[in-house]
Amino acid sequence: SNAIFISDVIKNYYLNTYSFKSFTTIYDTVEYDSAIDHPRKFMEDGICRLLIAGFISEGKGQRDAIEATKILHQKFKIELTVCGQGNEEYVNSLIPEQAKNYIFYKGYQNNLAPYRQNSDIALVCSRMEALGRVTIESMYYENLVIGADSGCTPFLIKDHETGFLYRSGDPSDLAKKIEFAIQNNDLIDEIKAKAKNYSIKEFARDISSQILNVYQDSLINK
Q1: 145: left (phi > 0), else alpha (psi -120 to 50), else beta?
Q2: Which residue in 21, 112, 157, 172 has its CB near the most CB atoms, within 10 A?
Q3: Which residues form the Glycosyl transferase family domain (predicted)?
Q4: Per-residue confidence at 35, pLDDT binned at 50, 70, 90?
Q5: Domain 48-203 in CATH 3.30.70.20
Q6: Adjacent-strand bridge partners of 107
Q7: Rounded average pLDDT over 128-135
C-alpha cells in the first residue's frame, strides 16, 4: 500500500507499526490573512508579551508556559495571555491569585489576530503536536516562536534560526530560552524574518499537484 502523511512525526509513528510500498510527507497548506500585519516591535514598550493558544489540557503544556512566566516575573516585566477552550478549571488552577495581574486567561477566541499583533513571543508547549499549525501561523504573523522539543515542533523550528526549542515539560528551561530572547533582542528580527519566509515557502503553496503526482505514480507502479 501507499501512504501520504501530513507530518514527519505522524509518518514516523506509523512506520514503526506498519509497512508501506511507498510513502511521502506532504504538509497541509496553511491559509494566511495577508491583511493582518504585525506592527509591534519586539518588546517595544519594555514588556515581554507572551501568547499560548490552543486546546486547554495537560498535554498542551499550559503549565510550562505559566510556570516559566512566574519564574521570569521576578526579573522582567512580562505578561502571558492564554487562549483556548477546554478544561477551564484546570488552567485556572494553575494561575495563583497573585499572578492574575500578569497572567491572563481569555478562553476560546475565534479571532487570534489581535492577540498575535500584541504579542512578542508565541509559546508552543504541546508534548505531541501532530502538524504544528499554531507554530506555522505564529511564524507567518511574526511572533518569535519558542516550542517544545517533542512531537512535530522540532521538525518545524530550527533552533536559533527560525525560533527556539526547549526541553518539553521543563518550565525552567523554557524560562531560560525566553530570557535569552529578552537579553538578545538584537537577534530577534532576523530570526522572525527567516521564520516568516519559511512559513510562506513551505506552507502557503498549492499541494494538489504533489498529491496528484503521488496518486499517478501509485497507479503506474501498481
Answers
A1: beta
A2: 157
A3: 51-197
A4: low
A5: no
A6: 83
A7: 80
Provide the β-strand partners of residue 163. Answer: 159
Spacing of C-alpha 165 from chain mean position: 10
- Measured CA to CA, the distance from residue 136 to residue 156 in angstroms comes to 8
In the block, which residue shows the cell 525552567? Answer: 172
Parse the chain into domains and list their residue ranges.
Answer: 2-26+207-220, 48-203
DSSP string covering the chain = -EEEESSHHHHHHHHTT---SEEEE-PPP----TT----PPTTTTS-EEEEEES-BSGGGTHHHHHHHHHHHTTTS-EEEEEE--B-HHHHHHHS-GGGTTTEEEEE--S--HHHHHT-SEEEE--SS-SS-HHHHHHHHTT-EEEEESSTTHHHH--BTTTBEEE-TT-HHHHHHHHHHHHHTGGGHHHHHHHHHHHHHHHHSS--HHHHHHHHHHHHHT-
- The whole-number pLDDT of residue 186 equals 92
Q: Could you report the per-residue pLDDT of 95-110, keeping only the tens digit for each?
A: 999 999 999 999 999 9
Q: Residue 66: pLDDT band by 50, 70, 90 thresholds?
A: very high
Residues with Cβ within 8 Å of 31's Cβ and at least 6 positions away in sequence, in order, are none
